[in-house]
Amino acid sequence: MAPCIDTSRTTGKALLSQDDDSRFHYINLFPPGNFPARISRSPNTSSLVDGVDVWVKMLEEAKSDVEKEPILSSYYHSSITSHPSLASALANILSVKLSTLALPSNTLFELFISVLEESPEITESVKQDLLAAKERDPACLSYVHCFLSFKGFLACQAHRIAHKLWTQDRKILALLIQNRVSESFAVDFHPGAKIGKGVLLDHATGVVIGETAVVGDNVSILHGVTLGGTGKQCGDRHPKIGDGVLIGAGTCVLGNITIGEGAKVGSGSVVLKDVPPHTTAVGNPARLIGGKENPKMLDKIPGLSMDQTSYLTEWSDYVI
Questions:
Q1: Among residues 258, 16, 198, which one has the least CA distance to residue 113?
Q2: Which residues, in sequence order, are bridge partners of residue 282?
Q3: For residues 19 and 65, what is the distance between their CA atoms, to the nearest angstrom?
Q4: pTM of structure
Q5: 278 touches 297 (CB < 8 A)
Q6: Span 140-148, mean pLDDT?
Q7: 23-24-25-27 Cα dihedral, nearest 10 degrees
C-alpha cells in the first residue's frame, strides 16, 4: 500500500535506558447513550501482575526458564537479564531483529533507546500489549515468551517507535523501520497509523494497516487482516477501529469507515460500511447479524473475550 503524503548488546558501555488526536468519529455516529448498559467498558489498564510490574515479572520468568533450560543462559542474559529496564531490553531485541549488514544493530539500538527514553508512554503501551497477549492468547506461555518470540508483538512495538519518529517529521527513518518490519515480520504498518494500547496481533502474518488508520485500545486482530483504502485517493482514507474490537483472520476493512466500540468482524469478511458498536458483521460483503434494522447486540467485549464463532448459528445453517 503506497503512502500518500499531503504536504545483542552487552558491553562495558552503560546501556541507555503530542498527544495523538486519536478520537474516533464513530462517537458522533453512534452516541454512547446507545450502548448496552450491561457491557463493561473499563477493562483493567494496570501494568501490574499480582501487584508486580511486568518487567519484574519478566526477570523472574527468565530466571526460572534458565534454571529449567541452562542452554538458554547466554541468550536470556543478552536479551533480558543484562538490561536495566524494559525499554533497554526492547531496544536491544528490536535492533537485533531488524538489523542488516548495512544497518548495524548498534546504530538501531541507539535510535530506539533514545525514542523510548523520551517517550515513557510507549513503554506503558508495551506493558499493556504484553498483558494482552498473556491474557488473550492461550498459546502464550509467559511474558518472556511473548517478548522474545511473538512477531506480532515485536512488530507493534517497532511501529510505536516509527510512529513517534513520524510525528517528529523524521519520516525517512520512520519509513525505514516500516520497511525492515515488513521484511522481517511480514507485517506492514504505515508509520502514520495510530495504534492504541493493549493490542493483540495474533499470529500477525500479513497484517496491513494504512497511513490514516486508527486502532483503539484493547483491540485484537488476527493474521491476514487489511485496514486499507479503497483506491488512490489521498487524505483521511483508512478505517477507524474502536476500543475492544475483534477482527477475524483474513478480513479486509476498506475505506474511511468506522468499526464501532466493542464490535466483532467475522473471519474472511469484506467490510465497506460503518459497523455500529457492539454488533457483529460477517460475510462478503459484510452484513450485520440480526439485520441492519435490529442487529443483535453483544454482551461481552470481543477484543477481550476472543470469541470468534458464537454468531455462526444465527448467520448460517452450516453443518458438517
A1: 16
A2: 287
A3: 38
A4: 0.83
A5: yes
A6: 96
A7: -90
